[in-house]
Amino acid sequence: MATKTVKTRHSDRFGAFGGRYVPETLIQALDEVVEAYAEASDDPTFEEEFRALRADFIGRPTPLYHALRLGEAVGHPQVYLKREDLNHTGAHKINNTIGQALLARRMGKKRIIAETGAGQHGVATATACALFDLECVVYMGEEDVERQALNVFRMELLGAEVRPVASGTRTLKDATNEAIRDWVTNVESTHYIIGSVVGPDPFPRMVRDFQAVIGREAREQIIEVSGRLPAVVVACVGGGSNAMGIFHAFVGDSDVRLVGVEAGGEGVDSGRHSASLAAGQPGVLHGSLSYLLQDGDGQVAPAHSVSAGLDYPGVGPEHSFLKDSGRAEYTYVTDDEALSAFHRLSELEGIIPALETAHAVAHVMSHADAYDGPIVICLSGRGDKDVAHVARTEGRGRLL
Amino acid sequence: MIASVFARRGSEGRAALVPYMTAGHPARDATVTLLTELADAGADVLELGIPFSDPLADGPTIQRSSFKALQAGTTVEGVLSDLAAFRSRRDTPVVLFTYLNPVMRFGMDRFLRSAVDAGANGLLLTDLPAGADRALEDAVIESPLDLIRLVAPTTPIERVPDVARGGSGFLYYISRTGVTGARRELRAELAGEVQAIREAVDLPVAVGFGISTPDQAAAVGAVADGVVVGSALVRLLDEEGIEPGVDFVRSLRAALDG
Description:
The complex is a heterodimer of chains A (400) and B (258).
Chain A: E1 13-14, E2 17-18, H1 27-41, H2 44-58, E3 64-66, H3 68-74, E4 79-83, H4 93-106, E5 111-116, H5 120-132, E6 135-141, H6 142-147, H7 149-157, E7 161-165, H8 172-185, E8 190-192, H9 203-211, H10 213-226, E9 232-236, H11 241-247, E10 257-265, H12 276-279, E11 281-285, E12 288-292, H13 317-325, E13 328-334, H14 335-349, H15 355-367, E14 375-379, H16 387-393
Parallel strand pairs in A: 4-14, 5-6, 5-8, 6-7, 9-10, 9-14, 10-13
Antiparallel strand pairs in A: 1-2, 3-4, 11-12
Helix pairs in contact in A: 2-4, 3-14, 4-5, 4-9, 5-7, 9-11, 10-11, 14-15
Chain B: H1 2-11, E1 16-22, H2 31-40, E2 46-49, H3 60-71, H4 76-87, E3 94-98, H5 100-106, H6 108-118, E4 122-125, H7 134-142, E5 146-147, E6 149-151, H8 160-164, E7 171-174, H9 190-200, E8 205-208, H10 214-221, E9 226-229, H11 231-239, H12 242-257
Parallel strand pairs in B: 1-2, 1-9, 2-3, 3-4, 4-5, 6-7, 7-8, 8-9
């Protein structure tokens, strides 16, 4: 039996949301992560190493790109894309996995587990584990293994083991259940690199902090190029890590609107969607209290989205807080609107966005005139992984 | 009620037997009959699982039983109504075992009132560890139900009194890290750990997670106040049906009475 205990120094909540609703087995492990993260935050050598890896390995800062042809198409002269797709591995996810892998090394953990939906977080975790020589196991729903075959092979190339999850809806929710079960079982040797601002404390605030570099850079960049703060910052929201990452630096700028775009799937009225904030009620899943898609008996309702990375019935607790406090606004776009934006951005700007990211782009395509001033879109990831899936969706047969 | 059952068994020098079953499994209409037969087979306390769609503390066996029970239409209301029907037949104490979300959706206060009315004696919420949510914990503590607390092998011994605070009935010691599920071997350190917990708290200690044979039950019963058997029983009920499951519980009773 373990013999050490620590006190939480931070609040584990965002208003009423968040918390640590986990089996007792994990409490000590969460205390260890809290303590290690607090120590790392106070240690200049941690930030120094992290900063160097962000510059040399991830490739930061990422550009803020003035998308003139997109702007022309939507009738707005100032649409900017924060190019997280240009990060190493092609998405914002690596900002977090490098930070957590550094933390795992400080904690002396040799084994890493992760969940993944679209595979972007799995690839980013496998990459960090290769870099730091850590054993890596990634849980992925069977349905996602099928629709994101390319990313499965990428993870394997990087030395990770991908474990398909056949339970439940065979998507991100079930991969997360299975990763938590692994952690409960192997807690002493293993660190769980959660991929979004979800899960028990300290994950939502720690993942936000590791992603906050997106907003810090974007805020400086937009001031530099336009001489002012943006009118609005737009990001897609599944669990919500790219959105929290870009929102965080702007939360104190009360004139900047923050808009999160959820996956409306086949329409919120159809019941086949992933819009937890638009259509869910507060509930507990995966260790925290947040908006949740559920039925009248408290059973978690299946989510749906054309994009595997948004196909999740929950959402990060800080988004629930920002919604209820009114600081951020949340809306949704449908599968069809996202697919259309996927094509339009590719044709207009030569940038194929991830299907997740295409949701944020789709919102701006239909609402640009609502914003009087610069629009910053978090271009959270590139769409190479989605090309084969979109081709199949559109009846172009099997490319891969 | 639960405490007095443990006290009676303790005075006899025997461990209490605590079988777990998932409500609505192996069939939606089997719950009342199965509870009754398990009571008659020698259960001292019954753990009745209210199924949840995402049972992240459970292994494959109870994931499957939960899934099947939900597919068959098991609801919180339905479980409580089955419990009330059982209560009119037998007095054996029942601990409701579930996850927080179905209870929160039902409404904690309404759930507690309904559970008491249906004849429940205790409540175990696997994802409500001590200190996670004082308001919800206090609601259970102030209700007539015993709040059954869990201690894990990873729980620091200094935390054990905090875990036990507000807990009553018995303390449930998870005998290994991991999700629920039958295991072949028991760990050698178990006796010492149970002894350390007993010294830290003033509650009977029941041990669960992985007990799958009468011999293992007897070995655990020799060092603990109670023995919880879940997945091994649920698997029998799932694969072979009610009678083999009930026979298994009878064999556990015989082993503990040894």
